[in-house]
């Protein structure tokens, strides 16, 4: 029987509407600079409520020079996204990186790494998304911090794998707290999983020299997670094909006090200099749809089908200009739909 889901579509600014159109063939103007223009604020209460009422949110990108004067804090376009993350409490940001991903053929061409170094790379970064320095709150309240770090550990998704927890426990008090809580959570709730503590700076070096050594679930706070996930992006060598998911948990998680929320967004921004030219790469946005099927809608087969279609089209050599090709945004989207 056909199921019906409620998906909130937030295309945003710049190339956002273009890449989103390829992912869903639909447009609305709800968040980001476009919302500042229309409503005087980067995200409205209506949009926050709609996010909480949806099974998932597909988000493209926000921001651009037009709104530089309102760019500070929560008022700017990017602030709208921070407010949404907070409202949905989507504290776990997932960024997969695997040599068997649909964009593997892109990595072969564009990765600055030698092939043998990135062969069989297979990890997922889980970054804490709603706390830490990004939200400007001092970590003073030990109870709050303990609660927050604990939730940061999230449910591991791939049980045979190690969890590699990044911190700077050698110098930072916040990291020592992080480490204690990760340790306690893992031993009491996930005793079957191997836990490795890795200093964040040396993790960076390992990522740059032998990324396979980090295969597993890389767990990190907001700051270290931001840095290591961007660095992981260098393995593929380009922004236009990297999706991400932000979750407060998974469907079926009995500890959740709300419904499961998921927001899916490409790792790239609104690329204002190429907006409106039909040259933006829609692959990252389309792979977000696959992640949405996987994590929010519990539709693994559909997720794989979308990924297979992307893989097939990329393997066929069709490329947008960011990857040295001539295909337009729409042509790329159409080819992927045809492959599907
Ligand atoms: P960006 O990711 O928008 O662009 C970086 C470079 O990659 C540019 O050369 C751009 O042309 C290219 N690029 C990005 N996405 C592409 C795609 N799909 N296809 C082809 N080429 C692509 O980052 P930038 O330039 O630092 O920021 C531009 C605006 O986006 C800023 O206002 C920034 O604040 C905002 N931004 C928003 C994000 C979000 O909504 N989550 C994330 C990052 C930036
Ligand atoms: Mg980043």
UniProtKB/TrEMBL annotation:
The keyword Manganese is annotated on this UniProt entry: yes
Domain Isopropylmalate dehydrogenase-like positions: 6-336
Molecular function per GO: 3-isopropylmalate dehydrogenase activity; magnesium ion binding; NAD binding
Cofactor dependency: Mg(2+); Mn(2+)
Entry-linked InterPro entries: IsoCit/isopropylmalate_DH_CS, IsoPropMal-DH-like_dom, Isopropylmalate_DH
GO biological process, one term: L-leucine biosynthetic process
GO cellular component, one term: cytosol
Coiled-coil blocks: none
EC number: 1.1.1.85
Enzyme class, broadest EC rank: oxidoreductase
Highest taxon, organism lineage: Eukaryota
Keyword tags: Amino-acid biosynthesis, Branched-chain amino acid biosynthesis, Leucine biosynthesis, Magnesium, Manganese, Metal-binding, NAD, Oxidoreductase
Record-stated family: Belongs to the isocitrate and isopropylmalate dehydrogenases family.
The protein's name in its UniProt record: 3-isopropylmalate dehydrogenase
